[in-house]
Amino acid sequence: MNKLLIKSGRVMDPETKRDEVTDILIEDGKIIKISSIEPASDMEIINATGKLVVPGIIDLHVHLRDFEQSYKETIESGTKAALKGGVTTVFTMPNTKPPLDCIENIRKYQEIINKTAVIDTYISGSITKGLGGEVLGEIDKYKKLGINFITDDGFDVNDETLLEQAYTKAKENGLIVATHPEIDSIARDGVMNEGKISKKLNVPGQPNEKEWKAVERGIKLAKKTGARAHMTHLSTKESIELVRQAKKETDLVTCDATPHHLSLTEEIVLEKGGKAKVNPPLRTEEDRLAVIEGIRDGTVDVIITDHAPHNTAEKEADILKAAFGFTGLEILVPATLTELYHNQKIDLMKVVELMTLAPAKLANLPSGRLQKGASADITIIDLNTEKQVRREEFVSKGKITPFEGMRLKGWPLITIYKGSLYKA
Which residue out of 306, 318, 347, 377 is catalytically annotated? Predict the structure, then answer.
């Protein structure tokens, strides 16, 4: 049986603005019809009554580890976690060990992807060799390997002259510079936001300027070179305002935000300690609301997870010693819907677009759409399912998240990838 019928779901396609209760017929991994369809004996039927049916979620920013860090995550475990979370496409960051900074390492990583990934998995190439910020990686060779983004995520490139060279090469090769914006010389030892909580805990903090000055620099270089600049996981009010103003002058600058920066603040570090340690850090309520306002007015283009799994020991250390980052793929949908749709009352079509069509357009992918002839990458969500986040239910090897124990509303029930069915 190769026909799959999604019956009576609320079908939402951000590109066509379709939002109606209807059916979707899938055959041989493709959507062949979207309309009222009479069930037949050769169809497997999914009753989607009362459920939201959207394009498969796309996450432009994950860390799948593997290579020498397979104890943290593998491409297989990470993509299975994504599938459970309603995600059908991911872009993995190059800060593996060894890093994805040359043809040899990228091809080895692609071999593992081809053998073990259970969803579409793309690579972002590193800007510099070893992510060391001193010598450019093999940027001129990336495009022929299917790479669209370059980044030293986990770090920024401190040498502005070298960074300008990277922007220039990105322009020449049709690549997007995805900047992890931070000025290394500012608060190099900071482990959380600089403010009342860091002072209370007597630990070094990161001021907002560590991020926004790098955003300012990236915008300047994009304008100077003509390269496209994407600012990732923005966390400060100043960064959002800089991108907002830049967009009035150029279409070269885009940005994204994470569910944790939209939902949580520095206050949670008092309760969660190292489990809430992330880079950039969780900020103030003023910053959080500024990022949400960036969602409302279109300054923020995309939602990403920055899924950064570590083993439990690395995260349960104190705030000074704990690793930066935490798992996120399996709660991307409910965390985003809880805050933006249920709490902030942002238009549902807009929220869905931020996780589907918008990242597809940014990455120049044909996915992120529910239309006849499109690949059947589909996520079926129950907007009203509310449940507690439990680490023991995670497929990811990374079990730590500051969302653990919180109740989130709007969970994926079924993920369809190229016509194949996965039930969460």
Answer: 306
